[in-house]
Amino acid sequence: MYKEDISGRVAFISGASAGIGEATAKSLASNGVNLILAARRIDKLENLKNSLEKKYKVKVKIIKIDFSKSEDIVNALNSLEDEWKNIDILINNAGLALNKDIYSNNLLEDALQMIRVNCEGLITATRILLPFILKSEHGHIINIASTAADEAYSGGAIYCATKSFVEMFGDALRIELIDKPVKVTNIKPGLVNTEFSTVRFKGDKGKADNVYKGLEPLLAEDIADNIEYVLTRKSHVQISSMTIMAENQATATMAYRNQ
């Protein structure tokens, strides 16, 4: 199977300290891609940086960014050294869900935080980094959306809305960049067993584990593997959207559970 050589390119990954972001960093590093990793937990990024540089001999820059704060994003990215501005790949991965309850029971602050991170943070980072990507001969923007982008469900009014936003933003961006050497891909994972659910239920591990009970969910590495696939297609091939679900999952809300 054809696999384009992406070694030597530079990728920016948001939310890189755990889950899909961390797995993607490892996958790209194994392909010789130099990395800019951003997240709030700088200690985790430091450990990841040391591991990747030692194992794969790539260059890794880490940045502490809270993607719920646009000013933080702007200041951090505008301070990038010239050697790190030759960005080819942007992985918009930072995102979260908070609680799963009908909207009338939601805390307003939880709703606003999801909008800040999933929407405002994504478009802010993209706007600052896009001029750098436009200078690349093989630019690629990958947005991590969700099956929730295509199917609303009870308890997910704000989360579903934010992921639909991510998908529509990516689709419009692809249209606007039609005459540029920049591809745009929306990745829509289904049930992926990461700390995502633990965060959603604010540390309640029991509730988090129940999300995946009775089936074999996807792992962060499965999503990273498909991101690698998207990035290594022939130069004239653009995968605009990819939905990835577990074997026993049919829709965002429908799955067969052996229990």
3D structure, described in words:
With 259 residues, the chain is α/β, with parallel strands linked by helices. The chain has one domain: 3-Layer(aba) Sandwich (Rossmann fold). Helix content is 41%, strand content 15%. It has 8 helices and 7 strands. The chain has a 7-stranded parallel beta sheet with strand order 3-2-1-4-5-6-7, with helices on both faces. β5, α5 and β6 form a beta-alpha-beta unit. α1 runs parallel beside α2 and α1 crosses α8. The longest helix has 26 residues. The mean pLDDT is 96.
Give the topology, please.
Elements: E1 10-14, H1 19-30, E2 34-39, H2 42-56, E3 60-64, H3 70-78, E4 89-92, H4 108-133, E5 139-144, H5 157-176, E6 182-189, H6 196-200, H7 205-210, H8 220-231, E7 241-244
Parallel strand pairs: 1-2, 1-4, 2-3, 4-5, 5-6, 6-7
Compact overview of the structure:
This protein has 259 residues and is an alpha/beta fold.
The protein's oligomeric status is single chain
CATH class descriptor name: Alpha Beta
Q: What fold name goes in the CATH topology slot?
A: Rossmann fold
* Percent strand: 5-15%
How many DSSP E strands? 7
Rg is 18 Å
- Profile the largest sheet: 7 strands, parallel
Number of domains: 1
- Report the CATH architecture: 3-Layer(aba) Sandwich
What is the SS-derived class?
A: alpha/beta
Number of helical elements: 8
